[in-house]
Write a structure and sequence with these properties.
This protein has 436 residues and is of the alpha+beta class. It has helices at 8-60, 66-77, 97-110, 151-191, 205-253, 259-284, 297-310, 329-347, 400-410, and strands spanning 80-83, 116-120, 123-132, 135-141, 292-295, 315-318, 325-327, 351-358, 361-367, 414-419, 425-432.
């Protein structure tokens, strides 16, 4: 068991409390030290003035009027004069720095034989000795004349200020802690498999940024779950038809040795294999490879284009000078392959691949002269298992462009499906020049 609190709110308030207490104690000590000398000077000046005035009055007064003078001083000013006894002992001053300093100042100003006490013969007051010629006297002032500042008063005011500061600190920390508690509740809901509502992005900038990142993460997880569910549904749908044809073909093949039928079955099997590869590509994108900081985009484009040329395809390239990029090479090769395959499949004409630098992004464009994609369907075609009506009867899974979009977003980029001047499709991928 530990006394250190576990919650952020309690820890923050405790630390602020300790800091404020130490600060107030230091402030009180500074005040007492800085107030000590001026207060001692004030006490010494007051006593010196009273002693000098009383001595002068006694010396200059007529002998018959001294009794009246002493009576007036006692009644009007509370000042009493007593004869000093030879060899009498008085109680020493309390060990209070201000009084000790005042006594030292009085001895310096009134003489080294001057004595200063707060109690003589059991009578409390401010007692100071002085001499007129060879006669010794005591003068007693009311104790209220030299009252020191009560430290308890300042401690009380300091405690009030401390409580107000702690209340403000608690309110400030609670304001910061409130969105953190909301994030904790939302994270617990996600751990239970439920999608929480978006966390309110309030409070300081750091907390707001954290809430925004959490909301984005929750949205990404939901999209990922939706895509996986859609993937499972697509697998059963897209593989059922070729499997049904193969089953029918096998049954018919037993009755006929038709070579055309066998070729159709081979094509169906190849379609199944291609569909499975696309499914696996799409599913494995969650386990991404590590990015390299000095990726050569032009080299990747060149290797892909050369591969198609060796296979007899009409694919050309136009490359611009690009700096090194933060890339995942295998993922980028898959992106390029899917775009070129898509262009060749739908256009069956020459395909051109271009690279360029546009502001702070690197651009990859794959252009063809096919039928293109209607503008209203461009965004929809980036969703998994989405195909145009005219392409539904041909081979393919509708995952190619979805994989391209996902790889682009993995790199902090994006893809656009645009019309090409003169007809055809222009697939434009933008990747940040400074790695995301």
């Amino acid at each position: 068991m530990t006394l250190w609190p576990r919650t952020l709110l309690a820890r923050s308030v405790l630390l602020i409390t300790l800091l404020l207490v130490v600060a107030h104690l230091a402030w009180l000590q500074i005040f007492l030290v800085s107030e000590r000398e001026p207060r001692a000077q004030q006490i010494a000046q007051l006593i010196e003035s009273v002693v000098n005035l009383t001595r002068t009055a006694l010396v200059t007064a007529q002998p018959e009027k001294r009794i009246d003078l002493l009576r007036d001083l006692s009644q009007l000013e509370g000042i009493q004069i007593y004869l000093a006894e030879t060899g009498e002992q008085v109680e020493p001053l309390p060990d209070r720095p201000t009084l000790q300093l005042a006594a030292a100042i009085l001895r310096e100003r009134l003489g080294p034989d001057t004595r200063f006490t707060l109690n003589r013969d059991g009578i409390e007051g401010t007692w100071v000795s002085f001499k007129i010629e060879d006669d010794g006297y005591w003068i007693m002032l009311p104790g209220s004349r030299i009252e020191e500042a009560d430290p308890l008063l300042w401690i009380g005011w300091g405690a009030v200020v401390l409580l107000l500061a702690l209340a403000g600190a608690y309110a400030a920390v609670a304001t910061i802690n409130r969105p953190l508690r909301a994030l904790t509740r939302a994270a617990a809901q996600m751990g239970q498999g439920r999608l929480p509502p978006p966390v309110e992005m309030g409070g300081p900038l750091e907390i707001s940024t954290l809430a925004n990142a959490f909301n984005q993460m929750a949205a990404d997880i939901k999209r990922l779950d939706d895509e996986r569910a859609l993937l499972l549904a697509g697998v059963s749908h897209d593989l059922r038809s070729p499997l049904a044809r193969i089953r029918l073909g096998v049954e018919m093949l037993q009755e006929s040795g038709d070579g055309t039928l066998k070729a159709d079955m081979v094509r169906d099997i190849e379609d199944i294999d291609a569909a499975i590869s696309q499914f696996l590509d799409f599913a494995r994108l969650a386990d991404t490879e590590a990015a390299v900081g000095d990726g050569d985009l032009n080299a990747l484009v060149r290797s892909i284009v050369e591969r198609y040329r060796h296979a007899g395809e009409n694919v050309t390239m136009q490359l611009a000078s690009l700096p090194a990029l933060a890339l995942r090479p295998v993922a980028v090769q898959r992106l390029l392959t899917n775009l070129v395959d898509n262009a060749l499949r739908h256009s069956q004409t020459a395909v051109e691949v271009r690279t360029a630098a546009d502001g702070d992004v690197a651009v990859i464009e794959v252009l063809d002269h096919g039928p293109g994609i209607p503008l209203e369907d461009a965004d929809r075609m980036l969703q998994p298992f989405t195909r145009l009506e005219g392409a539904r009867t041909g081979p393919g899974t509708g995952l190619g462009l979805a994989i391209v979009d996902r790889i682009a977003r993995m790199h902090g980029g994006s893809i656009q499906l645009l019309r090409r001047e003169g007809g055809g499709l222009r697939a434009r991928v933008e990747l940040p020049l400074h790695g995301a």
